[in-house]
Amino acid sequence: MSKNTGRRAAAAIALTGAAALLLSGCFSGGGSGGASGDGDARIQVAFMQPPKANMNPFSDDAFKLSRWSTGETLVQLNDDIEIDPMLATEWEQVDDVTWTFTLRDDVTFHDGTPFNAEAVKNTLDQAMASTTPPRAMAGVALTTEATGEYEVTITTDVPDPLLPNRLASPQLSILSAAAYKDDGTITPIGTGTGPFVLTDVNGSTTATLDRFDDYWGEPAKIAGIDASFVPDGTARAGSLRSGETDVAETIPVSQIDLLDADTAHEVLQTRTTYLALNSESGPFADPAVRAAARAAIDPSGIVDSVYEGHADPAVGLLGPAIPWAEDLRGDVESATAPGTVAGVEITLATYTDRAELPEIAVQLEKQLEDAGFVVTQDVREYANMETELLSGGFDAVVFSRNTLLDTGDPLSFFAQDFTCEGGNNVSRLCDPAVDALVAEGQTLPLGEDRQKATLAAEEAILQLDAAIPLVHDRVVQGEAGTFADVKRDPLERRLITELTAPVQ
């Protein structure tokens, strides 16, 4: 039996110092939001992607809830990728499959209803019953019982040492009962617990959040957040230069030199861009054709030509922000010899939200055509192609993924992206050996044995050529210098917090 209070058990990763620090900005300069210089100020933020699922918290839209500090979870990942309290103050693992969580007794939902064990049970039950359950729960089923007004007992169907990490996913933000509608829709508008209350989402264009004065923690230092969704990277950078925006997500490399030096802030990420090959249907269902694509692709020039040095050459699916990966990784070769591909027609897809991806696709098209493939590109906004990406609608996809986004554990990333039941499996890989390696690794406690299992799974995936690693990304976050304590988060979970304040 183990019990955790205060700072909790270490998660699967310890990032290097540069990646682990969620740096705060404290700058001088012009901008729109900080003009009032007091608690009446509102911050203007340009986000890269609009909502993809009408703000359904069980989708990737949940990460907006955490970056806006409106949705909160039972526990949270801290700067060292360890588990800390949030809505739960302490927890205890009773046996291999049973955990109890003690809840805060001073929390009120944004709609005025009380936060308690029944509310937590409702959210977790809704997640388990969802037709699209949160990715963080892949491979694990749980049941929840309110064993006290402020105590919940969670039982998993299999031993799961990663349960606290899963519960830290923004996709398991605890919402009030009013969030869950009779027609199956879910809305976080006015139903969260964070320092900012979401008051409006205007389709794919804007969202509005106001300070929640009854917040259980330290009240927010600003009056609210005005979010705009700007998929075009050049437009995001332009809004920063013009003073319309205080903070802009993911500035394209092509725009960095157009910003003042103290405006562009590079954040080492646990993000990898790779070429996902559809191993289920089409030409790449043939392992020899996948091997031919891998042999044709040389990603070495992408870092210099596309990223202008603001990235690292890929050494696997897990990059340098996960320091133990390189130490445990061996050489990986294709399990199949390359086949003949002269005249083989393929569709190569990617999305415009990350400005570098279409440029990568251009380079890959040439390399693949030099090997004999006939390539047709399909490039759109992510929101307009997600369903096709996840259902195998393309032969190959230039895809960018934060490998620690869901749980802070890269083995969970493999489970989501490369197993038969994975909910984010763009490669459409379904291999019994890979599934077995991932499943076995997920039973291991956090530590060196789990790390070795993770690298064994990576090797098996790469041998099948389902994914061809290209680059390990660094993200450039734009800040006008009008607000301090804007988070620069390698895990892309936090951005504007209760501490964010105008520069005086």
TrEMBL record:
* UniProt-listed SUPFAM superfamilies: Periplasmic binding protein-like II
Q: Which residues form the signal peptide?
A: 1-29
Q: Which Pfam families match?
A: SBP_bac_5
Tagged with keyword Chaperone: no
Q: Which residues form the Solute-binding protein family domain?
A: 82-424
Alphabetized UniProt keyword annotations: Signal
Name of this protein:
ABC transporter substrate-binding protein
Species of origin reads: Leucobacter rhizosphaerae
